[in-house]
Amino acid sequence: MRPVVIGLSAAFCASASASATASVKVRLESTCDAEMYVYLRYRNKKDEWRNAGWYTMEPYESFYINSDGPVLSNNLIFYVYADTKDGRGFFSRTRENDDHILKMRNSKAYLPALRLVGQPYDDYINVSVGCE
């Protein structure tokens, strides 16, 4: 199976809604014991796919993501690339069914990414990333 390229027009991707109408903040959580560098793709409150990153996360840190203002979404699907200095990153290396390619904003570079389903809470969606 070939990887899916996640680009500027990713309307073909399936959507999972946190709420039928409300958009909430997106919280990024590290479950890794090392500093991580994170880049992700999300669907905003206008139902448009957007990129956000780079974020540097300290071990076990969590925060609400911000990309030119608070990131709001009612979609639980995220595409995430995260890596550590020593290469224990959080992206698909071998699982063909999970392989996605994330095109970086304002760049010709591509990153391998994992499709994640965020955990919905009343006022935010939690997206956990870890390391090997």
Automatic annotation (TrEMBL):
Keywords: Signal. The keyword Signal applies. Residues 1-22 form the signal peptide. This is DUF1036 domain-containing protein. It comes from Celeribacter neptunius.
